[in-house]
Every structure is written in C-alpha cells, then in structure tokens.
Predict the 3D structure of the following.
Amino acid sequence: MSAWETVIGLEIHVQLATKTKIFSSASTAVGAEPNSHASLVDLAMPGTLPVLNREAVNMAVKFGLAVGAEINRRSAFERKNYFYPDLPKGYQTTQLAEPIVGTGNIELILDDGSRKTVRIHHAHLEEDAGKSLHEDFHGMTGIDLNRAGTPLIEVVTEPDMRSAEEAVAFARTLHSLVTAIGICDGEMSQGSLRFDVNVSVRRKGEEKLGTRTETKNLNSFRFMEMAIKKEVERQIDILEDGGSITQETRLFNGDTGVSRSMRSKEDANDYRYFPCPDLLPVMLSEEQIIELKNSLPELPAQRLGRFVEQYGLSDYDARILSSDLATSDYFEAVAERSDDAKLAANWIMGELTARLNAEERSIKECPMSASHLAELIARLKDNTISSKIAKQVFEACWNGEGSPDQVIEARGLKQVSDSGELQKMVDKIIAENTTQAEAYRAADEAKRKKMFGFFVGQAMKASQGKANPQQINELLMKALEG
Amino acid sequence: MTLHKHTLTELKALLDAGKVSARELTDTFLARIEALDGELNSFVTVTAEQARREADAADAARSKGDTGLLNGLPIAHKDIFCTDGVRTSCGSRMLDNFISPYDATVVEKMRAAGAIMLGKTNMDEFAMGSSNETSFYGPVKNPWDLSRVPGGSSGGSAAAVAARLAPAATGTDTGGSIRQPAALTGITGLKPTYGTVSRWGMIAFASSLDQAGPMAQSAADCALMLQTMVGHDSKDSTSLDRTTDNYLADLDKPLAGLTVGLPEEFFPASLDDRIAELTRETARELERQGAKVVSVSLPSVKLSVPAYYVIAPAEASSNLSRFDGVRYGYRCQDPVDLMDLYKRSRSEGFGDEVQRRILVGTYALSHGYYDAYYLRAQKVRRLISDDFARAFEKADVILGPTSPEVAFQLGAKKDDPVTMYMADVFTIAVNLAGLPALSMPGGMIDGLPVGVQLIGNYFREGQILNVAHRYQQATDWHRQAPAFGGEK
C-alpha cells in the first residue's frame, strides 16, 4: 500500500449544442471552411456588440438542475483580459463572481459497485476561443475563428476524487449526463468535452492539501487516466527525493505519454477581470426554471435505477446499459421486442459491444438494428436456432444479409426438430458406429457420461449444427440405453 | 445663395415646399466643405460622390411621395460610426486603413429616414480628448477663432455645424464629447439617456458611458435628428426597449409651472464670473417665461472627475484590446514574433493620449488595485446618481454651465492632461448617472460662444429640448455664426 494519497479536482469545458454562438448568430457547426462561421461579432469588428443566446442560458440551467445545483436567479458576465491571436476581442467573456450554476453533486458508481459523491463547486457560462493553425502557413500561424464564440459551460468540481479511476468514472458520468440531457454532443475527439485535471498528493492521514499542478485540455478518458497516473508518480518521486512541487500548468502529450511544464504560477497573467459593460446581468424567473426542469428527460442515474427495477438487471449491467442515451434506447428496444431483458443485455454487452469496439463504431453507427437483434433473440428462445447458429446469424445480419428470419431461411439454418427426421439420423449414427455403441452399453454410469458426447458430436456434424440439441439428446439416450 | 445659413428645420420646410432640391442642398454644402475645410480640418473623409447619388435618389423618392423625416437633408457623421464601404478611422492611425464592412445602427436609421451623408468628421483619437488635438488627422480649428480649439471629442462635427459646412451632425458623448464642443463652437448638442440610442457600430470608448446624440444649430434641429436616432435595437443589449417619445410635439410648450434647479456646485468661486453670469441670465430668461428657479445641491459631483478617469480608462483598456494588428487596422512592418507584432502595432498605431488612458485603465483593473480604484469609482457613481435623484425631487430640469471656460488656444494644454481632464467637471457627472443633457449657446465672451447646460431626468429629452427651444425662441445666441466662411 502506498503511503501517499492522491487528490484530484477537475475543471471541464462542455461545449453546448446550441445552433448559434453564445453572443452572435453565426453557426456553431464544425468542419466548415476556416472563418466561414465567423460573423462581425466573432471577428471583433470595431463597434460590434454581444447579444446573449438564451438557448445557451437554458442549457446551463438544465445542467444545474440535472446535478441538483442551486440555480442563481442573477448571474453576470465579466471580461477576462489577455492577448492571444485566436482571442479576437483581447478578452474572453466569462462568468466569475456571479456564475449561473452554484453548488451541486454528481454521484458515481465505481467499478467495484460502490458509490461516491463528487461535489460541484459551480458551473459558469463562457465563450470558446478560435484556433491557431500552425501547419501549412510557411512558418506563420493561421487563425480560424469558426470556434470563437461557441458557448461553453465550465464545470468546476471540489477536489473530491482520490484516484485516476475515480476521476475517469466522474468524467464518464458527466459525459453520459450532458449527452442525456441534450446540452452537448459528447464528441470528445472534436473537443466537445475537455478536461483540466488538478492533481496533488499528500501523506496518508495528512489533512492539508499538497501543492497542485494543473494539466490542461485532455480530450479522452484514456489520456486523462494516463496523465493523472504519470503526474501522481512524478509528484511522489519528487517528494520522496525531498523535493517540493511547483504550482504550475502542465501539458500532456497523449501520443508520447510525456507531460511538460507550460507556465508556473509566477508567470500567470493578471486577467484584470471586470463586469462586462456590454451585457446585462442574466435574470431567471421561477417560472423559467420550473419550465426547464419539466423539460429534462430521464437522467442516467434515474434510468439506472429503473433498469434494475424494471428489467431485473444487476447494478453492473444497468450502469453500462444506461450510460448513454443511444445504448439505453437500443437496449430498451431489444428488451421489449424480444421480451427477454436478460438475453438482450447479454447480447448487447457481449457480441454487439465486441464487434462495435473491433470496428471502432459507436452504437449510433451499429449496422444491426434493434429489431433485428430482438428477432434473433426471439428465434433463439423459440428454439428455431441454437445459440451456436445464432452467432452465425448475427454475423450475417451484421454484414447486411437481411433480417435474422431471412438469413435463417436463405441459409437453411432452421433447427431440425422433426422427430421422424431426427430418429432416422440417430438410427444411422448408431448403425455406423456399432463398436462405440456396444462399448457404451458395456460401460458404467461414469464412463457413459463421457462417451455420450461422441454421439452428440456425430449428430451435430450430420445435421450441420441444426439439430435441436434437447431432442437429439433424448433420442440418442433412448437408442443407446433402450 | 445663403442656403447654408438655414437651420435643419428650415431646410426641411424648404424641401417639403419644393423650394429646393436635395441635390441643390448637397451641392451647396459640398462646395462649402471644399472651399473652407482645408483651413478648418473638420472632415476626415468627404463622401461627395456618394452624397450626390444619395441626394438624387432622395429627390426621386420625394417625387414618388417619400416623406422620410430627414428626406434630402445633408448631415455629417462623426468618424466613430461605422459606415459600410467608407473608411471609419475613429481619428486614429490604427484605423486609417479600415473600411467598415457594415453600417452603425445610427447611420442606418439616418439613411432610412432619407438623410444624406456628406462625410465623416474629425475627432479626438478614439474619442479621448476635449480639444480635438489628439486626432491622427491633426487638430480641428474653431471657426470663431482659428487659433483656438473647437473642443472635443466631437470637435469636427461641432466645427462643421458652426461653420455651416453641414446643417447637422452626429456626435458621441462619453464625458461631455457632444456638449463641450457644442458649447465652445456656439451650437446645440444633446446627449440622450444612456440606452436610448443604439451603440451598435459606434466604436466603443467606455461602453457604460458612451451615448450618441445630435449636434445642430438649434434645439428644434436636435429634436428632428434625435427622433430619427432613437429606438430599441436588438443588436445592443444595453439598448432600452420602450416606446419612442415624440420630441417634436412638445417643443413649443410654455414653461409655466416648470422648476429649474441651479446646483450650487456648478457655480464654484473659481468659475469665470462672466460664465456664471451668463448662466444665471439664462435662468432669468426662463423665469421670465414662467419657470421657477430653485437652488439644488449635488455634493458628490466633485468626485466625478476622478471616478470618471478610473471607469472610462478601465473600460477603454479592455475595449481597445481588439486593435492588435491581427485582423484589420494598422500592423507594424516586419514583426519578428507575436509579441513584437502586438507591441509595435499598438505603440505605433495609437497616439499618446490613447496609450496614456490604456495604461491608466490597465493599472486600475490590476490585481490588488481593483478594489481601491474600480470598485470605489463605481460606488462614487452610485452616489452621484443618488444626488441627481434627490435634486430631481425639487426641480424638473437642472441648469448650469457646460464648460468652465471658452475655447482655449490650440496647444495650450497639450502637455497638461490633468488640467484638460478637470475642465470636464460639469459634463462628466451626467454620463456617470446616465442622464440626458444638452448644451446650447447662452452668450458670448470676447467674441467666443459660451454654452449653457440643461440636464433632464431619465427619458426627459423632450423636456430639455422644450426648455431649450423656448429659450431659443426668445434669444438669438444660437443664430450667431462665426465670420469664418461667411462671405463665401
């Protein structure tokens, strides 16, 4: 057991899924030609002014409601002043003293099934910056302002996590929450969720927090886990060598697994925050908040509880299947149509997830529709096919050969349950294997058990796996033991 | 031809009566600009061709029944307003090469009402100054005495109207930039209640104080202009959503029953006796017309100059960060790296006064100083608003001098910014409180005009215009014109 305790707090930038930017009417769509989604306001043309997008406010409030947070009836924007080429106004419009969302909680279920609450310090609204492009400009830097002004909420947690695993569990829970309530598309690879991790270590039993470092802009769960583990090791090494930790901002390169110092606290900018005189404070009425509360869909935590209750799933299965809306919807569709939640869960978490992972697809891109999977499960249940054949059918459906019924029909995979046909097959096997049949009859109970498998194997071979296993067992038993 | 001597209101009557065409009017003023502005330097850009086209279009529209409020009337815009396709310099080298891709709301509204833009007027750089000497395009001269300043920052608009190079012009007022030059050049200028006129497209100096307004010969002219400028604008979050007042309807209302407050703090012992006396004479004229004059007190007004010179530079230091040489405007030659690009573009692109205010504002917002300066100044702002609220319990309008002095010599205060700042003492409190106020000519001292200021309660532009109009019906200070250009 290590003598050290890790303390982690997170700051998460969540890009809000509004159609237009937080202070202009330009589109937030990604993938467009550079600067084609940059309006006069986004370009910070002289004389332009911001107008707040109410939809961004609504989404921030929904987030607050979903984590049981205080919603501040009055919040205000401030300017954070610093120069950078992808920050066209020379300041970022953000919230500081009066954020829109106050303290809240997010409950995690860890891999061992235990539960943990992470406190949310606050969440505030702000605008994203543009992007600096360093390639293809002959040593110069290109600026793309399409992202400038995309609405964000920055969620700030208390330092409540004690391991990289807990931090990742939090990140996954947050991801599933913001996608479930429809305020973020959750596309991590495009930067829709970006994590800054604050890490410190202290000797077990120590109450005082150690000096922390901040590693910025991690955009995958894996990089986040790697970055935290590396940073914890680095800090412990320094401290065990008698050194001390410098409060600094660090950058982590996920490809090399190496982090480096970006700037120390001493180099930090004086951002000269002050209230933005171009924007009025955001006022929220009780009615608006109630209306937004009523518009919230079922939250992942509520869904998890329902899956356990309604479908009799284990906590573990329920957590996985309720983690994102697309998976949940898929599961519920399969469970209802096949009328077997347990089989539906097994197939989705087994075969389906394995194939999706192998092909790096999300469930939204799954070539096997929920109704096909439900049909497959139904054929399994009514003994039309065996579980072995089911895997073949699954494969064929995945590859676009049609519905399970079509595949079973086309490939002649229907389980043979005709007792007359099966009887002929059994008679033939016994006739062709008289030596084995006689040996069987002469053997004792224990040996017989082992030898019986040989006859079953022969039957399956003869029927190309289509023989109803239960029936064939009975018929073989009768023929051998008379 | 003496067309140029007419007020905007009179020119409108001539147009409406078909006695003159928009084209004739436009040609008249363009000719005067051409002949006289070389000396005055009141225009940065003259849009002659565009103006003639607009004038012909206005005449054509009128023949088809167009009754736009300003149809065919030539005006000038302060070069702080963005004008689509026309250079918008804000008096700065930084924007000397900036052709705006869009129109300010004020410009759009003027155009929609049929006004014709003669050009863009000179101004203190980024509206920072009270003498028009900080302009990249050189100082504007006061037409009453070419060796004197016209005031600022809307000095170009003021001088152009005073010299009758334009019948009216737009201005902006952050700490007196409409009223003080109006006073120093003998014209009428009004700063509306904060939020009445849209700030969209008006290059920001201090966002919480900036407000656009009209500058013209008379209160009636200002009412005509203001009627066109005001209105809610969804592009400006600080624009007020309220029913538009009719500023023209009550211009002639008699003054009986009106209470005029004279704040003792506006008549300090140090004030030039002649200015104090002319201001009191204005009060007596209003009394003669039935108004009651009372004394009021604004004890916190003395704090307005220091509070203003914290808040305005603080906001400016942030507002002017966008001028970084990256996307538009001035960029230094051959920058070696990003820091060099920023430093040299801004050092070379901004003049001394702008740099001074950016430094002051940056300091005031810095960590450790914010509470002592910015927050304290905001508290003073509150106290000043409270003072006015109490004064308006006793009086309907407040009367005082606009400026503690008449137009001073060019260069006289150039190296003494603090003395220059102190001269804003009577105008600044109004911006801090967000109130409407106008300056009108109230007499002459040694051949130079003296301005008198009328401050109204929130949204009482109509009332101060009414008082000023009644005053101007009984006096002719506003009809006095400088000798400059009079023969041409």
Notes: Chain A touches chain B at residues 40, 43-52, 79, 81, 83, 85, 88-91, 141, 143, 270, 272-274, 277-280 (CB under 8 Å). Residues 4-291 of chain A form one domain.
